[in-house]
Design a protein that fits this description.
Helix content is about 15%, strand content about 25%. It is of the alpha/beta class. The radius of gyration is 18 Å and the shape is globular. The mean pLDDT is about 95.
Length: about 250
């Protein structure tokens, strides 16, 4: 294991140190005193498993375009645009995170224990067996799953009072692929016109339960139980929600 003290190090130099350590064969990095450093793990393309532990607040664009069996474990909060167009790997944030998480995400997993901001999961997509997964432990703000084209989005509402919705307004606006699972109530006025709510069925639960088990293990929530009747499923009712706007 290699320990790197980010301290007052410029983000560019920190990322150079991370890449150099991985090139030299390190598979476990511990980053101390991270304070908004940007681009951690961005563009990494690893063939061997690598674990990067972050102590402090991770900055914007962490894990953007990341590929390969890389796991980034952030023990505190993280800022915006995590996992932008990420192709593979896993990011675990044990606090809160910001806006536009998982933009264009094409594979891998992003787990956030707390709250997230706006436009989370926008335009996620999938191809054959490559399916991105994004799980929010508590609440997401407006435009959750906007323009979703593929993948799995989950909002759990773990810390909310009974009756509170774990999502904001304009949920799944423009969604034309993938699936969203929400644990808790979602009023119709919050939904985009392109989707409809359905009850989670047995096949859905078979798909969702392993994701929830992995999320609980990563967050130390093994005692928290989930059941399929707690979830609703959002799916698009059209594969071309804006066809009439752009074609005649």
């Amino acid at each position: 294991m290699k320990t790197i003290d980010a301290g007052k190090t410029h983000y560019k130099r920190l990322n150079e140190q991370i890449r150099q350590a991985i090139t030299e064969g390190e598979t476990h990095l511990k980053l101390l005193n991270v304070n908004g450093h940007r681009y951690i793990g961005a563009g990494l393309h690893c063939k061997q498993p690598v674990l990067i532990e972050i102590f402090g607040v991770a900055g914007n664009d962490m894990a953007g375009f990341m590929n390969g069996p890389v796991t980034i474990l952030c023990n505190s909060n993280a800022q915006d645009t995590l996992c932008n167009t990420m192709n593979d790997g896993k990011v675990v944030v044990r606090g809160n995170a910001g806006d536009v998480l998982g933009y264009g995400m094409r594979g891998g997993k992003l787990f956030v224990r707390g709250n997230v901001g706006y436009r989370v999961g926008i335009h996620m997509k999938q191809y054959e067996g490559q399916v991105p997964i994004l799980v929010v432990g508590n609440r997401a703000q407006d435009f959750f799953g906007e323009y979703l084209a593929g993948g799995v989005l989950v909002a759990l509402g773990l810390d909310l009072e009974a009756g509170e919705s774990p999502v904001g307004d304009y949920v799944a606006t423009g969604m034309h692929g993938g699936v969203i699972f929400i644990r808790g109530p979602v009023e119709d006025f919050r939904l985009g016109e392109e989707v409809r709510p359905f009850a989670a069925e047995q096949d859905d639960w078979a798909r969702l339960k392993p994701i929830l088990d992995e999320f609980a293990a990563d967050m130390g929530l093994e005692g928290v139980g989930f059941s399929p009747d707690e979830f609703i499923k959002l799916q698009p009712v059209s594969t071309r929600p804006y066809g009439k706007l752009y074609a005649y």
